[in-house]
């Protein structure tokens, strides 16, 4: 059946304005609480973050509560950042970088230094080719922009690195100043410890044979992101969709131009409109706070009784901080570009260690609840071409036909990954999806 999209006459989400310093009474917090994701779907409201480097002047309590509410309920949120350190890109600028790179390669001259070109990908375990190209660079390669006049190609490399640093800056503001996460939990303070990655995407237009096929061509097949959080910038074409688990619909995430119309610019500065996604690693460490991978149904005496009690408590909680399943529908007329910044926890920490840090005192811990069924996390699927676990689930999956998560492939992977350094988990995942 064709997935149903966000209908144009669905109610528009409000923009919650960080400039309006509403008194932070409980009434106001309730009034601006993000709506539940149900059959009358309302997209999470856009949160405008103010300038400033600490919690008190970056984000008033209302905005912070709405962002926490969006991520807790939906696992994603639109945000507006009015004071980023560099300008938001234009579509032409990004297309120009791809054009010049492809031209230079045709001429046999240099590529883009630390920025790596990735051609069309086979994005699913079925091997479907995703009609796009991309450029990628790690944050650890983006420090200290060089001085002086750039050589041909270097200027584009610098531009991509600047995008990477700016999106990193936004990710750090969200984690540190807005969500008030402990330092070195979701993102490392030291860029040398960072596995974060920027990908610049160019999705080709795929002429639709309208009326002949209900299934859209996917520029990015459905998935969840593996890391701690992802920050996405997309152009005015749109195409990013998020799956609403309650209404079983794919929801269009509104593109820049549409949102721009109702979000007047109030101050000078580099204004970025982005989407934040909760990643699998974050969702797993935030979910079921008292139940790690070994807590469910194992028998080891009195310790086990304690664990089971806690686990039963966790079962009664609502799902919170889900990592949203999303995809990109290929455009049918106009090509599309996006910037996607994948944030990861510090490379040498384990999920177990990060959970301990959060348990040690995170202000928003009461928002924690139950995690998704393990089979819903792509981090816990075998995404290799031969791995059955790469197959898209139906959204209710637990990865095991008997419904026992522990016995499922996802359960086994979860136990294996829980104590591994993040860098080993990421290496394992790249090995799965590398199909050259
Ligand atoms: O291009 C986009 O907007 C999102 C792509 C994406 O979700 C991903 O690469 O993980
Ligand atoms: Fe993604």
UniProtKB/TrEMBL annotation:
The record's annotation in PROSITE patterns points to:
FE2OG_OXY (PS51471)
Q: Name one Pfam family in it.
A: 2OG-FeII_Oxy
Q: Which UniProt keywords apply?
A: Iron, Metal-binding, Oxidoreductase
Q: Which residues cross the membrane?
A: none
Name of the protein in question: Fe2OG dioxygenase domain-containing protein
User: Ranges of Basic and acidic residues compositional bias?
Assistant: 1-23, 303-313
Q: Where is this region: Disordered?
A: 1-40, 286-329, 385-406
Q: Where is the composition biased (Polar residues)?
A: 24-40
Q: Does the keyword Coiled coil apply?
A: no
Location of the Fe2OG dioxygenase domain: 194-345
Question: Which domain of life does the protein's organism represent?
Answer: Eukaryota
This entry's Gene Ontology molecular function terms read:
metal ion binding; oxidoreductase activity
Composition bias type Gly residues, residue spans: 387-400
The keyword Oxidoreductase is assigned to this record: yes
Provide the family line: Belongs to the iron/ascorbate-dependent oxidoreductase family.
């Amino acid at each position: 059946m064709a997935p149903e999209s966000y209908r144009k006459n669905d109610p528009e989400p409000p923009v919650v304005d960080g400039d309006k310093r509403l008194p932070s009474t409980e009434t106001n917090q309730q009034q601006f609480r993000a709506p539940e994701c149900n059959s009358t779907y309302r997209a999470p409201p856009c949160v405008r973050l103010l300038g400033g480097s600490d919690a008190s002047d970056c984000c008033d309590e209302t905005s912070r509560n709405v962002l926490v509410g969006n991520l807790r309920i939906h696992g994603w949120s639109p945000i507006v950042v009015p004071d980023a350190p560099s300008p938001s890109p234009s579509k032409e600028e990004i297309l120009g970088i791809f054009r010049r790179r492809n031209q230079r390669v045709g001429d046999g001259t240099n590529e883009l230094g630390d920025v790596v070109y990735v051609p069309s990908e086979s994005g699913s375990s079925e091997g479907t080719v995703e009609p796009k190209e991309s450029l990628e660079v790690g944050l650890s390669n983006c420090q200290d922009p060089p001085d002086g006049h750039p050589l041909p190609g270097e200027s584009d490399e610098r531009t991509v690195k600047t995008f990477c640093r700016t999106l990193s800056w936004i990710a750090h503001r969200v984690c540190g100043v807005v969500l008030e996460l402990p330092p070195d939990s979701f993102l490392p303070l030291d860029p040398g410890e960072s596995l974060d990655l920027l990908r610049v995407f160019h999705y080709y237009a795929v002429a639709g044979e309208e009326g002949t096929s209900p299934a859209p061509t996917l520029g990015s097949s459905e998935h969840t992101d593996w890391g701690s959080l992802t920050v996405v910038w997309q152009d005015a074409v749109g195409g990013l969709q998020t799956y609403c688990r309650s209404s079983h619909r794919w929801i269009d995430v509104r593109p820049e131009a549409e949102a721009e119309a109702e979000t007047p610019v109030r101050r000078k500065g580099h204004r970025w409109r982005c989407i934040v996604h909760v990643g699998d690693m974050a969702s797993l460490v935030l979910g079921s706070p008292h139940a790690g991978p070994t807590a469910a149904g194992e028998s080891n005496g009195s310790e086990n009784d304690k664990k089971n009690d806690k686990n039963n408590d966790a079962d009664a909680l609502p799902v919170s901080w889900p990592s949203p399943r999303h995809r990109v529908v290929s455009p049918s007329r106009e090509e599309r570009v996006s910037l996607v910044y994948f944030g990861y926890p510090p490379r040498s920490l384990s999920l177990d260690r990060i959970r301990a840090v959060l348990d040690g005192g995170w202000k928003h811990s009461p928002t924690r609840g139950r995690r998704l069924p393990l089979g819903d996390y792509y981090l816990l699927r075998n995404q290799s071409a031969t791995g059955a676990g790469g197959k898209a689930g139906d959204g209710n999956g637990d990865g095991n036909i008997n419904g026992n998560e522990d016995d499922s492939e996802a359960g086994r992977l979860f136990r294996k990954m829980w104590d591994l350094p993040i860098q080993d988990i990421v290496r394992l995942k790249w090995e799965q999806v590398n199909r050259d």
